[in-house]
Each structure stands twice: as structure tokens, then as C-alpha cells.
């Protein structure tokens, strides 16, 4: 059975339909689900390992974060030692595990690091990466600075709709990371242009629901690893490695009772517009603003039911900003072919009024609305 829930569209098409996840097919029967899920077992184990190691590296850096860790990129977004370290680590692990079939589309490259004055920062990244590999103990290697730069640059694949490609955002939500808030290591696998596997490591996300009253209790542990393989459901486990549980999306169907997520950063999503949409939907609760694809993880376990993402004009979403998060949510949503919730009907009306905006995901009670237009390549 073809699982064609995620459609990527070439940006070269004149009028590309937006990347969307609505009208999803039902999940495969339990027997075929097992077969589909099992065919990515090795990939899932490697992805979980890579993302967990990267998360540990990031946690270490975030603790010791200094302003001097911040560089600037052309797009002015902050880049940290952890960002590069995370990419080097994930790239290295995946290449070790899949030496004959390795293609990685990742956000960073080593260009800035190779410039004059970059040596010190490269040495710090290299030390962090080597420390992480030593603690893990699976690979008996010590990487040189050049090895680390090469590992970062091995993420320069163009991707595509043929074959397998890993897709990585080494730190999604760099602003949240720098603020000491939410961020995620987001790793997905594309096979034939479709997302078949996703892992989201969210080092600062509480293990209990964001809607729980006790979320700020000092006893509330943080650090979640969400993972999903197509046809196999979504699971969450603590980043410390204890056992995984299957998660379930929110059962709330009435938007008046739903909480909705949006970006923490007003520069990333138009808060005024989402507030208007929420108001029209009848949502009563204030927005829950968190950074990164941690929002998708939180949605997959029912912390909220609606995600509104409305980037400002001109911003182009990248494949690594949604691939892992989307499968984590879609695998956990109950299936229903026909949109029927009150919220989706209202959104349907509103999407016609907001030109260029589409809700991309509708399964039973979950709604995600974004303007994302993605292709399976880095462009
Ligand atoms: N101007 C922008 N508009 C929308 N999203 C942006 C913008 N700049 C960066 N991003 C990306 O938005 C995502 C975070 O979204 P959110 O605000 O929902 O947390 C990240 O992928 C972030 O990139 P990065 O991965 O470099 O952090
Ligand atoms: Mg990102």
C-alpha cells in the first residue's frame, strides 16, 4: 500500500500546491504496519542514537553558553558551536552506520568555520564531538578538526525524490536554544521523496504534558525523544534512555476547548494573524508559544490540538524544519479521511480568505496551519 500522506512539490512548478498533509489515508492493517515499520529498524536505531548523542552535546553547550558562541550567518540566524557539533556528530554516526548508502541534507556547512579566526571554534567543536563519541563508546575513533569539518560538509547532499536521504536540522530553534528555552534536534529519512522516519530530540521539553498544572515543578524532568516510522505509530521516551511509550494526540475536537501552539518568536510567525484565526475558531485559551519542532512532539502526545504557523512574507520554509516533526504528528493522529471537525470546517472557510495560507494537516482533532511549501531537496 502506498503511504502517500506527504507530498513534496518541485519549487520549479509554476503554481506549486503547498506542501500538505491533509486527507491522509488510514494506517495500514496491523500486519502490514509491522512489515513497513520493521523495514526501517536499523535506520531508526541509528537515528535515535545520533539524535540522542547530539542532544547530549547540545545540553552540555547550552549549560555553558556564552555570548561568544554566537556567530552570524548570511541569513543572520544565530549559529552556535552546538549547532555545528550536533551536525558533525549526527553526520558521523549515520555515515558509520550506512557507509554504502549515505546522503544527508543538513542545514549547516563549514564555510564560516574555515574562514580566518575559525580555528579556535573548530577545535572546541572537535573536542565536544570527541567527548561525546568517547562517552558513547561505540566507535573507537578520535576525529581530527578536518574530520569534523568534513563530517559537517557531508550534509551538503541536494536530496531528491529518488533513493534515501537523511534530513537534519542540527538545532531547530536556535533562538530558543540561546534563550535557554526549547529547541530540537530534528532528523528524518526520506525514501522515494516521502518521509518514512522521524526522530525529534527535545532536551528541554518536560516529560509530562505542557498543559499539566505541575509543569514548573522542580521535580518535573525534561528531555524527550519522539520517534516514528511510517505505519508504526509514534513513541516518546525520556532522553535518558528509559522505556518508550506510544503517544496519543489530543481528543479535543471543539476548538473552544483546544489550546494552540505557535512560535515563540514573533519574527517567525505572525502572532496578530494567528490570534485573529484563533479568535474566529473560538479558541479560548491563550497561545502556547514555544520554539522549534518541539511543538510537533508536544502535539503528538496531546499537549495541544492546533498549531498555527504563519511566517512573514518572503520566508521560505526548509525541508529540515518540518520533515521529522510532521511524521511524528501524522503517525500519532487518528485517521479520518474526511475532515469533519468543527475547527477544520471553520479553517476551511478561513483558508480561502487568507490567500496563500493553507492548513496542511488535518486528522481528527489535530490541525496544523502553515504556509510551508517544501521540496525534497535543500532548495
Ligand atoms: N524569519 C523566519 N521566519 C520563520 N522561521 C524562521 C525564520 N528564521 C528562522 N526560522 C526558523 O524557524 C524555525 C523555528 O521556528 P519556531 O519559531 O516555530 O521555533 C527554525 O527552523 C528557524 O530556523 P533555525 O533552525 O535556524 O532555528
Ligand atoms: Mg530549523
UniProtKB/TrEMBL annotation:
One of its GO terms (molecular function) is metal ion binding. Pfam families: Inositol_P. Its EC number is 3.1.3.7. Its cofactor is Mg(2+). Keywords: Hydrolase, Magnesium, Metal-binding. GO terms for biological process: inositol phosphate metabolic process; sulfate assimilation. The keyword Hydrolase applies. Converts adenosine 3'-phosphate 5'-phosphosulfate (PAPS) to adenosine 5'-phosphosulfate (APS) and 3'(2')-phosphoadenosine 5'-phosphate (PAP) to AMP. This is 3'(2'),5'-bisphosphate nucleotidase.
Amino acid at each position: 500500500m502506498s503511504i502517500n500522506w506527504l507530498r513534496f512539490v518541485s519549487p520549479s512548478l509554476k503554481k506549486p500546491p503547498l506542501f500538505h498533509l491533509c486527507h491522509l489515508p488510514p494506517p495500514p492493517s496491523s500486519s502490514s504496519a509491522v512489515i513497513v515499520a520493521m523495514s526501517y529498524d536499523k535506520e531508526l536505531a541509528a537515528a535515535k542514537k545520533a539524535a540522542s548523542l547530539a542532544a547530549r552535546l547540545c545540553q552540555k553547550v547550552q549549560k555553558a553558553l556564552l555570548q561568544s558562541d554566537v556567530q552570524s550567518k548570511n541569513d543572520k540566524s544565530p549559529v552556535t558551536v552546538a549547532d555545528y557539533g550536533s551536525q558533525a556528530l549526527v553526520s558521523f554516526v549515520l555515515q558509520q552506520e550506512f557507509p554504502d548508502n549515505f546522503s544527508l541534507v543538513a542545514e549547516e556547512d563549514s564555510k564560516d568555520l574555515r574562514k580566518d579566526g575559525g580555528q579556535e571554534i573548530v577545535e572546541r567543536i572537535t573536542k565536544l564531538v570527541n567527548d561525546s563519541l568517547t562517552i558513547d563508546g561505540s566507535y573507537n575513533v578520535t576525529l581530527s578538526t578536518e574530520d569534523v569539518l568534513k563530517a559537517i560538509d557531508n550534509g551538503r547532499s541536494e536530496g531528491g525524490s529518488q533513493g534515501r536521504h537523511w534530513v537534519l536540522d542540527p538545532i531547530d530553534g536556535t533562538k530558543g536554544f540561546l534563550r535557554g528555552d526549547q529547541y530540537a534536534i530534528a532528523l528524518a529519512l526520506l525514501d522515494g521523496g516521502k518521509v518514512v522516519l522521524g526522530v525529534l530530540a527535545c532536551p528541554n521539553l518536560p516529560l509530562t504534558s505542557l498543559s499539566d498544572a505541575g509543569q514548573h515543578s522542580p521535580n518535573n524532568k525534561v528531555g524527550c525523544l519522539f520517534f516514528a516510522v511510517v505505519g508504526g505509530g509514534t513513541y516518546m521516551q525520556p532522553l535518558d534512555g528509559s522505556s518508550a511509550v506510544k503517544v496519543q494526540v489530543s481528543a479535543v475536537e471543539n476548538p473552544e476547548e483546544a489550546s494552540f501552539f505557535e512560535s515563540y518568536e514573533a519574527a517567525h510567525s505572525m502572532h496578530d494573524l494567528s490570534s485573529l484565526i484563533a479568535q474566529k475558531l473560538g479558541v479560548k485559551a491563550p497561545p502556547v508559544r514555544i520554539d522549534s519542532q518541539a511543538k510537533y512532539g508536544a502535539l503528538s502526545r496531546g499537549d495541544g490540538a492546533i498549531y498555527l504557523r504563519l511566517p512573514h512574507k518572503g520566508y521560505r520554509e526548509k525541508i529540515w524544519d518540518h520533515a521529522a516533526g510532521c511524521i511524528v504528528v501524522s503517525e500519532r493522529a487518528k485517521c479520518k479521511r474526511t475532515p469533519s471537525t468543527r475547527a477544520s470546517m471553520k479553517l476551511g472557510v478561513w483558508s480561502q480568505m487568507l490567500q496563500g495560507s493553507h492548513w496542511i494537516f488535518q486528522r481528527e482533532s489535530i490541525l496544523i496551519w502553515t504556509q510551508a511549501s517544501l521540496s525534497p531537496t535543500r532548495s
